[in-house]
# Entry
Amino acid sequence: MNDQHLLNCEESKQGVPPRATRRSFLQSSLAAMIGLSLSESFLRQAVAANPKVASKNCILLWMDGGPSQMETFDPKPGTQNGGPTRSIKTSIPGVEISAHLPQMAEQLRHLNLIRSMVSTEGSHQRAKYLGHTGYNPQPTIQHPSLGAIVSEELGNPDFSLPQFVSIGGPSFGPGYLGQEHAPFVVNDPRKKLENAEPPQSVDRDRFQSRLAILDRMERRFASSHSGSKVRDHHDAYRQAVRFMNAPEMATFDLEQEPSAVRSAYGDSQFGQGCLMARRLIETGVRFVEVTLRGWDTHQDNFTRTTALCEELDPAFATLVKELLERDLWDSTLVVWMGEFGRKPRIDAQDGRGHWTTGWNVVMGGGGLEEGRVIGATSSDGEEVIESQVGIPDLYHAILTGLGIDPFTEYLTPLRRPITFVNDKAQGIPELIRSA
# Structure
C-alpha cells in the first residue's frame, strides 16, 4: 500500500473528499507545470502556448431561465424565426448581435462568443444542474458546482471572506467537496447584509461569552458523535464569526463606490450585483456568481427580453471595462450563460420554448483569446452547422482557463473515483491564446 493510498484513506476517515491522483494543476511555476504528467493534449497545448492561461478568479453571470440567443448574441433579422429583433455591428468585424445590447457590441472584441452550444437536458432544474456542475443529475451523487470547485482548488482557507459568493439568490452546492465550499448568498446587493452583526441588545463581550458556551456544547456533542455533519456544523459557525469580524466586510458596502460608477452598472439588482462581484474579486474572493432571472419567456418574449437586456447591457459591459481598467482582466475569467436557449420558432403567444441546440455562451478574460466567434447556426437558427460544443467541453475550457486540471480525480463518500469533467470532454482549443 503506497503513501498516497494511505493519505487518501486517512482523509476519507476524516470526511475530507480525497484526491485519487494529481494534487492540482498550474498552481506553481511553469517548470513545475511541465513536470506534471499531462496526457491530455489540450492541457499540454494550453501550458505551452501561454503561461498566462491560468487565471485565479471567475465571475459567472447566470441568466436564469434560459436566454433567447435570437434576442441576444445570435439574432436572425429579416427571417421568419427572427421576429422583430434587429441586429447591430460589433467591435468584431463582420459579427452582429442584438440591437438591445449596444454597449456589449463595443466590448465584444475583448470576449469570445460561442454560438453552437448543445445540452442534453431540456428541463430547467436538470439543465441548471448540468450547467452548474458539468454533469447530468444522478441519484447516487451530488456533484460540486463550478464555484465549489474553484473554492476548493484555488481558494485561500485563511482568507476571512467566503471564497464562493452567489449574488441574486442561491447557487448549486459543493457536493462531495464539503460544506466549507458552499456559496455565501447575497439576495440583493442593494441592501445591507442580513445577520452580519450581533443584535443591538447584545454587546461584544456578551456575544463572545455566548460563542464560548456554544463551543463547549459543540465539543461535548462531537466527543460522542462522529461524522462530517457534526464537523460541518461547527465549521459553519466558526467561519460565520470570522466573516462577521473581517475588515473585508466593507467590500459588500456599495455605498463606498462613487455614484458615477454605481450608475454605470445600472440601478438594477443584477447591475449592482456585477459591481459587487468586481469588488469581491478585487478583495480576494475567488468565485462570484451573479444571477439575472426572468429569461423563461414562453409568452411575450420580445417585450420581456428587451427589458432584460436593458439590465444586462450596462452591467456586463461596465464589468468588462472595469476589469480591464483595474488590471484584473487577465486574472479573471468571465462567463455568461444560462441553462439552455430558446426555440427559434415563435409560439402562438409571441414566446419561445426551451431549446438545447445552438444556444450561446460568452466568455473572456483569464488570458484567453479575444474576439473569437466559435460555431454557427443555420439561417433559421434551428441547426448547428459548425463546431458543436457540449457542456462538458465548455467545463473543460473553463477549468483549464482557471489553471485547474479538468481530470483531477476525487473519491466520493462511496469511494467512487470521479473527475471534474467527463473523460470524453475535449475542451475548446480555439480559446487558447497563442504565444
User: Anything to note?
Assistant: Confidence is low (pLDDT under 50) at residues 1-16, 21-53. Residues 3-128+290-431 form one domain. The CA atoms of residues 186 and 194 lie 9 Å apart. The first strand starts at residue 57 and ends at 64.
